[in-house]
Amino acid sequence: MTATFRYFVERALIALLFIYTASPLHSKEIALTFDDSPRFATGYFSGSERAKKLIRTLKQHEVQQVAFFSVSKRLDEEGISRLKMYSDAGHIIANHTHTHSDFNQLSLEEYSQDFEQADLLLRQFDNYRKWFRFPYLREGDTLKKRDGFRRLLKENGFRNAYITLNNYDWYMEGLFQKAIVQGEEISLDKMRDYYIDVLMQSIEHYDQLAVKHLGRSPRHVLLLHEMDISALFIGNLVDELRSNGWKIISPQDAYEDPIAQYQTSNIFKFNPGRIGEIAKDKGQKRQLWHSSLSEEYLKAKFETEVLSKADTLP
Ligand SMILES: [Zn+2]
Q: Which residue in 14, 110, 189, 305 has its CB near the most CB atoms, within 10 A?
């Protein structure tokens, strides 16, 4: 091999290696979804401020499309205008029942009616999709309920819009809003760092769990809620994800993953999400819920990292 030839071979190998590692095929992929819209807004932002901030931030961060799993009972005038803003911005509106009912508390018939009522009311939005997300991720605690509702979704052309990445963002929102009501001085920088750290921990946990049981990182679906801390920090979360090698994809693309066809054979009274289902089906018993899915943990961390005055003195 001449020196020149060897030089070209080396350059070609380096280029190939770069293409391989930088290829989108090899980055981890994640779609963003927001539940409970139009969720009550009586704290930091009004409903309309929240929606505008969320839409603007997603656009600034070049996130083309997210999904809003909506509860139709909350469609008063303001709620309708909020969902219309999301739909007009190109985001997906989908079904999360009429009353945010808990399947463990209702019969199959009652739950089906709640689903159908939401379907009728949410159709008014241009970007409505026949996607269903179970409130509390509870998919039926008996065989009759689980299989009966699976059949109903199928007959009506609905997708089970599962999540893969679970967390307690709603509990962090509660801590944030309560501190504001109590007149605490909250550093938004500290709140942001707390929020990002908690979410990244659970995201990496579920991704590792997926790799362990599937042998690959699937196209993920992140569960978030339509809340003030989501509107405040979604841009920061997107930046953090990207700097850790994640690519943001649309929920539509995420549901093209083969795990969308997966159906657990177990009955879950409390469901940890699709990765947790797969892990349990494969015999794993612990850590189906990541340790950050704990009110006690989140409260203690909030008190030390967000409320602590220790390092805020001039
Ligand atoms: Zn919900």
A: 305
Q: How far is the CA of 170 from the centre of ligand 1 (A)?
A: 10
Cα of 188 vs centre of ligand 1, distance in Å, is 25
For 155-188, the pLDDT digits (tens) are 999 999 999 999 999 999 999 999 999 999 899 9
Return the CATH class of domain 28-307.
Answer: alpha beta
Tell me the whole-structure pTM to 2 decimals.
Answer: 0.90
The ranges assigned to domains in the chain are 28-307
Would you list the DSSP string of the chain?
Answer: --HHHHHHHHHHHHHHHHHHHHSGGGSEEEEEEEEEES----SSS-HHHHHHHHHHHHHHTT----EEEE-GGG-SHHHHHHHHHHHHTT-EEEE--SS---GGGS-HHHHHHHHHHHHHHHTTSTTEEEEE--GGG---SSHHHHHHHHHHHHHTT-EE---SB---HHHHHHHHHHHHHTT----HHHHHHHHHHHHHHHHHHHHHHHHHHHSS-PPEEEEEESSHHHHHHHHHHHHHHHHTTEEE--HHHHTTSGGGG---SS--SS---HHHHHHHHTT--S-SS-TTS-HHHHHHHHIIIII--TTT--
Whole-number Å distance, alpha carbon 173 to ligand 1 midpoint, is 14
